[in-house]
Amino acid sequence: MSFAITARMASVPVMLACFTDEALLRGALAFERALAAASAEHGVIGADAAAAIATACDRFDSHGLADAAAHAGTLAIPLVARLRDAVPTEHAAAVHRGATSQDVADTALVLQIRDARGVLDLALAAIAARLATIARAHATTVVRGRTLLQPADAITFGMRAANWLLGVRAAHERFTREADAALRVQLGGAVGSLAALG
């Protein structure tokens, strides 16, 4: 069953693009490329192996990958197998060295969320800017105040918009703080000890 109709009603194309299969694959390949680069930097694998892995990531053929991932129960198994097949035989063991499938899955998702965060940051900044403009433009526009939906003292529409702005800014600040704390790459290896990396 497809939820494209529901998703499109609840979001916008630029946000939906952060969570496509292509975005997931980009994140998974970015993980493998970065793992190889960091492993080479620390002497776990050779620089030539890291370069071969990066080239394999750049030239990755995703044809049939969805079916293979469904069969394996995870994207990582067929992705890593294809990367190992794509590098020279002497570098195959360096692919995905010390990592586990969950490391790929978690990090790819975090990279997707990071991109979505950028979209949300821009949207919230635009909303805040528009509310600030409205608050200034209507600083003296008198409207009926409300308390528990009942008529109350007069206020200005600018004040009402300024209060909305405060709420948007507070939510954006909290989102930024929580995202900064939560959006981390994952690398624990098969049992979380990184033993395979020494």
List keywords for this structure.
198 residues; mainly alpha; 7% strand
Topology:
Layout: H1 4-10, H2 13-16, H3 21-41, H4 47-58, H5 65-72, H6 76-86, H7 101-137, E1 142-147, E2 150-156, H8 157-182
Antiparallel strand pairs: 1-2
Helix pairs in contact: 3-4, 3-7, 5-6, 7-8
Protein described:
There is one protein chain. By secondary structure, this protein is mostly helical. 64% of the residues lie in helices and 7% in strands. The chain has eight helices and two strands. The protein has helices at 4-10, 13-16, 21-41, 47-58, 65-72, 76-86, 101-137, 157-182; strands spanning 142-147, 150-156. The protein has a two-stranded antiparallel ribbon with strand order 1-2. A hairpin with a 2-residue loop joins strand 1 (142-147) and strand 2 (150-156). The longest helix is centred in the middle third of the chain and has 37 residues, at 101-137.
